[in-house]
Design a protein that fits this description.
about 40% helix, 11 helices, about 325 residues
């Protein structure tokens, strides 16, 4: 692998080396990744140099980054040793969490495990979903703990994806009888005109992000079957009026585009045995000028109620392409919407 050039420390005595031995050389190959890309990611993030010597990895650098890199590498190896796949997103998660998820006894097949200071795993039919930042971890805990949760922050922070994954998990374990996903059908700053087709074909473009999250958690055929049986519903916010939603897991996405009246209407649909999640980004309001966002009103009015959880994300929680975080930070610095 190409060695990372270390910045010279102020004192050469600050340089330290940690050696980690890995018993299974095949797992060590997986740990390193194709063309040692996993090791390169650790080097770049923490400013250390990693050298492979047989079945050992030597980590060189200043004491604190070396200790952090050692914890990350050991945590990733534990994951492989437990029979779990190792993807680039898993490396990113461990780097963000500092390897703090190690040694908590998670076993493959667990539905969900929550340890104090330990990991959270959300099991769906297609994959196990794991929070990748501390804010995501706290959000996932609250999704299981509270009947009404708000997730507020910029695009790409996993607000909707985690909410849908938890909904699928609860549905599979029988904690809820149906999943209802909704969005305001508001155009994002452009006029689309009259769309062709029946009602479903007209609203599907607005609902596509919810379909994407759902299909990532359940096989496509099962999604279609459950939708046919009305066990899963995807509908515009306007279709919620007049309903009482009992024993359901309900997600309102893009809630910043709901008016105050729509938000009140939606929140009062909550019935017995149901969970409700509201997600939104205060910087992407597409409502007409002069129309107040229902998300802002709900945040102001409900924040003092103990049983309602408010979870906030920043650009540091973006888990899409790294450029997305940089783009969000640039717009925030400029003060632009």
């Amino acid at each position: 692998m190409t060695a990372t050039t270390l910045p010279p420390p102020t004192d050469p005595a600050l340089l330290t080396e940690a050696r980690i031995e890995f018993p299974d050389n095949r797992l060590l190959i997986d740990l390193c990744g194709q063309f040692d890309r996993n090791l390169a990611a650790v080097e770049q993030k923490l400013g250390v140099q990693i050298l492979r010597r047989g079945n050992q990895l030597a980590v060189l650098g200043e004491e604190r980054p070396v200790s952090e890199a050692k914890a990350v590498l050991e945590s990733l190896y534990d994951r492989l040793e437990a029979g779990r796949a190792l993807e680039q997103g898993d490396v990113d998660r461990e780097l963000r969490m500092g390897g703090s998820e190690r040694g908590t006894g998670i076993q493959p097949g667990d539905q969900i495990e929550m340890f104090k200071g330990g990991p959270i795993e959300i099991k769906t039919r297609r994959k196990i979903v794991e929070p990748r930042t501390e804010a995501q971890k706290a959000y996932a805990q609250n999704l299981f703990k509270h009947e009404l949760c708000f997730g507020i922050g910029p695009a790409g922070t996993g607000k909707t994806y985690l909410a849908v994954a938890v909904g699928v998990s609860m549905f599979l374990t029988g904690e809820v009888e149906k999943i209802i996903l909704s969005r305001p059908a508001v155009e994002a700053g452009e006029r689309l005109g009259f769309l062709p087709g029946d009602m479903k074909e007209k609203i599907d473009p607005y609902m596509q992000p919810l379909y994407d999250a759902l299909n990532d958690c359940l096989p496509g055929k099962q999604v279609a079957k459950l939708m046919e049986e009305k066990k899963i519903e995807i509908a515009p916010l306007a279709f919620m009026r007049g309903r009482t939603l009992s024993s359901a897991y309900i997600v309102l996405d893009e809630a910043q585009n709901a008016t105050s009246m729509q938000m009140k209407m939606f929140l009062t649909r909550l019935g017995q045995g149901s969970r409700m999640v509201i997600t939104g980004d205060r910087t992407q309001v597409d409502l007409p000028r002069g129309v107040a966002s229902g998300l802002a009103d709900a945040e102001r009015l409900l924040k003092g109620i103990p049983k309602i959880s408010f979870n906030y994300f920043t650009s540091k929680d973006v888990v899409r392409h790294p450029l997305v975080a940089a783009i969000i930070e640039a717009y925030e610095a400029e003060g632009s919407v």
